[in-house]
Amino acid sequence: MSGQATFSGQAPDADGIEAIGRATIARLPEQFAVHLGDIVFVVEEFADDETLAALGLEHPLELSGLYHGRPLGEKSSMDSGTMPDRIVLYRRAILEEWIETGVRLDDLVAHVTIHEIGHHFGLSDDDMHALEESVPDDSGS
Question: Would you give per-residue pLDDT tens digits along the chain (141 residues)?
Fold first, then answer.
């Protein structure tokens, strides 16, 4: 999953970013996909001030995605009644990175989505990279 962005037309709205993220999830290997059914997946414009403060960040463009929840290996039967895990992609930060780096938008959204899924599984950065490499490219190239 690599390439250069083609800059034409308008930047996608939240639904467009979500569609790319969901397409990425649909291409995950089955052993990962089966454990994602209860995760809420959303796209927001920016991280809110409370989220940024909790992470020690000063500007909303510093955060392109976030996993809210406990990694699977830390869950127990005592977790019933808790809020569902969530993956949030932050549209404006993703678009800013897209413009700055020239990375294809679908590759960038896939990267952020897989990184946040990796947190759900408690994966290391190396494991997240391997997972990203295992997802087929849907760009047709």
Answer: 444 344 455 788 999 999 999 999 888 888 877 777 788 899 999 999 999 999 999 999 999 999 988 766 665 555 566 677 899 999 999 999 999 998 899 999 999 998 898 888 777 677 777 777 777 776 544
How far is it, in rounded angstroms, from Cα 89 to Cα 17? 8
CA distance 11 to 99: 10
Provide the β-strand partners of residue 67. 87
**What residue has token string 């930047």?**
11
DSSP state of 85: P
Q: Which residues contact 96 (CB under 8 A, 6 or more apart)?
A: 61
Residue with token string 């990203």: 132
Give the global pTM: 0.78
Give the number of C-alpha atoms closer than 13 A to the C-alpha of residue 52, restricted to the C-beta side.
Answer: 14
Task: Work out the burial of residue 82: count CB atoms within 10 Å of its CB; fewer than 13 is exposed, 13-18 middle, 19 or more buried.
Answer: exposed
How far is the C-alpha of 84 from the C-alpha of 135, rounded, in Å? 25
